Amino acid sequence: MSSRAAVVEPEVLNSERLNAVRSKIIERVSDTKKRLFAVVYINDRQFKVSQDDIIHLHHNVPLDVGDNIKLEKVLLVGGSEFSLIGRPLLSPDTVTVNATVIEKTTTSPELDYTMVNHKKIQIMKWLSKELTVLRINDIVVKPSALGTEGKDE
């Protein structure tokens, strides 16, 4: 028996089919009734978010309550009928995710208890982490940027 595996060649897309797919994506993005989702990269973590979601960041981010921010590290954006995947990130000209800082607080205290046997050493600490809470306002995909992406030149 031979241990060789069959190699499947990728399908080459012609420009007509590429333009048809691009126009369908632009049509879906421009429909405001469709809900989009995105995967964003914040503080070494990835979050899957959609409009009006709330995310908790486990660090003290130097922002004030009420500040509007624009998340530009977007890995993926999609809807019910399409997905745009970045390699590794989507261009900030193509998609932006807008968020608002709604709260800065701490987690409930957790007990950290250490006991060293035979030395009668007991250390008890109450630890709480700082949290920054963000609300995702909207996910904006610019159709004009989709028209130029991926064209053969």
TrEMBL record:
GO cellular-component term (any) = mitochondrial large ribosomal subunit
Pfam families reported in the protein's UniProt record: Ribosomal_L21p
Lineage, top-rank taxon, reads Eukaryota
Q: Which GO terms describe its molecular function?
A: structural constituent of ribosome
Family stated for the protein in its record? Belongs to the bacterial ribosomal protein bL21 family.
Q: What is this protein called?
A: Large ribosomal subunit protein bL21m
